[in-house]
Amino acid sequence: MADTVHTTTSSGPKQTGGNLVARFFRATEIDTRLLGMVGALLIIWIGFHFLTGGLFLTPRNLWNLSVQTASVAVMATGMVLVIVTRNIDLSVGSILGFTGMIMGVLQARLLPELLGFNHPAIWIAALAGGLIVGALIGMLHGLIIAFLGVPSFIVTLGGLLVWRGATWFVTSGQTVAPMDANFRLMGGGAEGSIGATWSWIVGVLACLAIVAAIINARHQRKRFAFPRRPVWAEYVLGALGCAIVLGAVWIANEYYWPVNIARRYAQANNIAWPEGGLFISHGIAIPVLIAVAVGIVMTFIATRLRFGRYVFAIGGNPEAAELAGIKTRWVTVKIFMLMGTLCAIAAAISTARLNAATNAQGELDELYTIAAAVIGGTSLAGGMGTIAGAMLGALVMQSLQSGMVLLGIDTPFQRIVVGMVLVIAVWLDTVYRARAK
Amino acid sequence: MTEQATPLVEMKNISISFGGIHAVENASVDLFPGEVVALLGHNGAGKSTLIKVLSGAYRRDEGDILINGEPADIRNPRDAKKFGIETIYQTLAVADNVDAAANLYLGRELQTKWGTLDDVAMEANAREVMGRLNPNFKRFKEPVKALSGGQRQSVAIARAILFDARILIMDEPTAALGPHETAQVGDLIKQLKREGIGIFLISHDIHDVFDLADRVFVMKNGQVVGHARTQDVTKDEVLGMIIMGKVPPGATPGPGAMKVA
CB A309 to CB B184 under 8 A? Predict the structure, then answer.
C-alpha cells in the first residue's frame, strides 16, 4: 500500500521542505488559484492605471466599478451552482429584464394607485413581487429540465426568447420610469450609499466576523484533535482579511459627493457652504452591500448546507448522488429557483440604478454572467466552482470593460477584447488544472 | 460454517422478465453471516439482475426474499437500505469532487443543531471507520478524485459499513482496479467477514473471487446451474459450470444444470 503513505498538503503541518513561499501557502491554506485571479485583477488594474494616466485607481472609479459589478456578480453566484451541476442558464438576462419590468410596473403604475405615490411599503412590495416572479420562472425552468428531461441549454434558450418577449409584452415596449424613491436606493449613487460612519461600522463588524470565524474553525478542529494551521498563519489570514475590508471601506469613504449634489444637500439642510467645499463621503454603496450579502449567503448555502453538498455531489457524479438517495431532480429545481430569485435581485439593482425599467435591460447579461463564473474557476464539466471566484470573475470582466471605456476604446473593440480574454482565461485555467494534477 | 443457522439472506425461486425474456428464472440463493458468496456467470447470465432484485433496483415478478428468516418487502433501494443491504457498484460510485468524509455521509449528512453540515464530526467518524478498514488511509481532505482506485473502493465500502450494513453486495468490485489494489480490496473483504457481514461478490471472472469466496453460485441463461463450497470444487470445475453448465460431483445442482444422462 505504498500509494497511501504520502501525506496530504493540508493535513501535514509537520511537513518541511519546499521554499518559504510554498510553505507559506501550505500553512495558510490559501487557494493559489483564487490568488492567481487576484493577481490578474491587480495587473489589469495597474495596467489601466498607467494607460489612462492615473484615472483607474481612483476612489471614484473603484467605487463606480464596485457598483457596476454588483448586478452581474449577484447572478454569477447562482450561475456557479447551475454550472456545477452540469447545467447552463442562458435566460438570466431575459429573466432580469422581465422581473425588472414587473417591479417597474408594480412600483410606478399599479401600487401608487393603491397606496399613493412614494408610499414606504411600495419598494418592499415591488421587490417581493419581483422575487416571487423570478423564483416562479426559475421553478418552471427547473421542473421542465428535471422532470421532462429537456436539456437546460434548450429550456433556457427558450427562456431567453420567451422572457425577453414577455418583457416587451408587459408595457408594449414602453420604458417605465421613474422608480420609487426608496427602491432607487438599491441602485447606489449619492443617496444609495451608507456614508462614512456606517461604512466604518460595517467594516469593523466584518473584521470581527472574520476573526470570530477563524477562532471558531480552530476551536472546531481542536475539539476532534485534527491537524491545525500554525498560529502565525491564522494571524496572517486574519490580518489580511481585515486589511482588505478596511482598505475597501477607506476607498469608498474617500469618494465624496459631487459638488452639485453636496450643494443641493447643504441648501436643503440649511448647512453653510464651507470655504474649501463640503466633503460628504459616499461610503459603501447599497448595491455593493447587497452583492456582498448575497455572496456570503450563497457561500454559506454552497459549503455549509446539505443542499450545497448535494449540488457538488451531483456535479461530481450524478449517478452516485442518485444512488446515495439524493433527490437529484428536486435539487435541480431548487437550483433554478435560486437562480431566478437572484436574477430578480440583480434586476432590482439594475432598474434602481438606471431609474427605469426598459425592455432591453439585461441583454447579453447571460453571457457576462456565464463568463464571470467560468473565469472565476467554475468548470463547465461540472463539480467545481466557488462563489467567491465567480464574483471576482465578474469584477475582472467589469474592470476590463470600465478600463476600456476610460481609454476611449470603441464598443465593438471592447467586445472583441472581452471575448478574447474569456477564451484566454479559460485556456490558462485548463493549463493550470492539467499541471495541478 | 453453521449450516443450521438462519441464513442472513434467502432468495427463493426468484423470477423476473423484461418484455417476455426471462432474465432470471426460478433462482434461489442464500447467504450466511460472515460468509462470502460469489455469484458467477457470463455477462448476461442474470447474476447482476438477480442481485439487483435484492438491492431494490428491480422488482421481482415472482419469488420471496427472506432476511434473517423474515419475509422482506423490497421495492426500491431505500427499502433495501432499511434491511441493512448496501451495494458497492463496479463503476466506483463515489462523487469524485468531494472529500472522503463527504462521500461517506452523502445523502445522510450529520448536521449541527443549526441545520448546517457538521463537517468536523463527519471527518472524525470518517477517520475512525477508515482507520478500522484501511489504516494507511490518510488523505481525508482531498477530493476523492486524487485517490487511487483501491482507496476509492475502500471509501465506497466504508460508506456501507458506516451505515451498519449487514449484507454487502459488491458488483465486480475489482473490475476497475489494478492487481495491487485488487489485493487491497481482498484484505478489506476478509476484514468485513470477521465483522460478521455477509457479502455477495458478483463477477464474471472466477480468478477474482475464487480465493475470497466461501461458496460459489453459478448462473447461466438466467438460471442457477448449481452451487458449491469452494473447498469442494476446483477452479476448472467451476469454469465448467460457467461455460457448459456441467455440475461437478462436489456441487449441488440447480434448475439450470445441464441435463446429462
Answer: no
